[in-house]
Amino acid sequence: MDAVARLGCIVCRNLGFLDSPAELHHPRFLAGGAQRSSHMDVIPLCPTHHRLGGLGVALHAGRQSFEAAYGSEAELLAQVRALLA
Ligand SMILES: [Zn+2]
Ligand SMILES: [Zn+2]
Questions:
Q1: I need a labelling partner for 31 at 20 to 30 A (CA). Which of 20, 63, 73, 76 fits?
Q2: What is the domain partition of the chain in residue ranges?
Q3: Which CATH code fits 2-28+41-84?
Q4: Distance CA 34, CA 8 (A)
């Protein structure tokens, strides 16, 4: 999990801002699914992109708006995994 956090916010990274301090978001699409949850199944997001940024910016303010702007949770998680590989 520390390795994930050290990547910094994945959205900020995609916008060109590296090493933005991140919180760990547990993707909704994994919850209740057949896939076993893993410590690596988290997406690093800064407080703004995670909770505080408002609709269209923060994931928890509205997931559809967030995904329209920055990509789906699945896409971001795949990117995180690729960066860690
Ligand atoms: Zn961010
Ligand atoms: Zn979250």
A1: 20
A2: 2-28+41-84
A3: 3.30.40.190
A4: 28
29 CA → ligand 1 middle, Å: 20
Tens of pLDDT along 25-34?
998 776 655 5
Q: What is the pLDDT of residues 41-84, one digit of tens each?
A: 899 999 999 999 999 999 999 999 999 999 999 999 999 999 99
Task: Considering every ligand atom shown, identify the ligand nearest to the alpha carbon of residue 42 and give its number.
Answer: 2
Q: Which residues pair with 44 in a beta bridge?
A: 24
Tokens at 69, concatenated: 């702007």
Residue 45 Cα to ligand 2 middle (Å) = 8
Ligand nearest to the CA of 24: 2
Centroid of ligand 1 to alpha carbon of 57 (angstroms): 9
Alpha helices in 1-85 (DSSP H): 2-6, 10-15, 47, 63-70, 73-84
